[in-house]
Design brief:
Elements: H1 23-51, H2 61-68, H3 71-99, H4 103-129, H5 143-150
Helix pairs in contact: 1-3, 3-4
Length: 151
């Protein structure tokens, strides 16, 4: 068989299979699982922020401070952040692998994707877990925030 013809669909694979983890398979599984979980997390986030309370008009510094005072919402937002960045970086990695023909350019772009996603995950996680609502107290008109920070 020449290099420019395709084998019949039922022809056994003759090249030896590589040993080790099949990262493409696990990336594919991750995309499906994280996609389903992200739908739940994002719509839960949107429902709480936009439908409950005063809707979009109720979102201000005090609203965010109140949400980030709860470990439940901190972990909700961090999980959404982590899953979204890894999901997006993995999707971009797939696009780079599909369309970038040079091995060096592909390697550089994939490394840049993972480094930028990792940096954003670290920075976002730090923002969520080190958020201090009392830093912006001088601009707040919300009574509970002023009382909380005065203590």
């Amino acid at each position: 068989m020449s290099a420019d013809t395709l084998a019949a669909p039922r022809t056994p694979h003759t090249t030896p299979r590589k040993r080790g983890a099949n990262l493409e398979k696990w990336g594919w599984i991750y995309m499906r699982a994280s996609g389903v979980l992200l739908v739940v997390l994002i719509f839960g986030h949107l429902f709480v922020n936009l439908m409950l309370g005063d809707g979009i008009h109720g979102i201000d510094f005090a609203f965010v401070a109140g949400k980030f005072a709860s470990p439940f919402w901190q972990w909700w937002d961090v999980l959404m952040l982590w899953l979204a960045f890894i999901h997006g970086a993995n999707g971009m990695r797939t696009i780079v692998n599909d369309y970038v023909t040079g091995a060096t350019a592909r390697r550089v772009l994939v490394w840049a994707l993972w480094l930028s996603a990792g940096l954003m995950i670290v920075l976002g996680t730090l923002v969520v877990f080190t958020f201090d609502p009392c830093l912006g107290i001088e601009n707040s008109t919300t009574e509970w925030l002023i009382e909380k920070c005065a203590a």
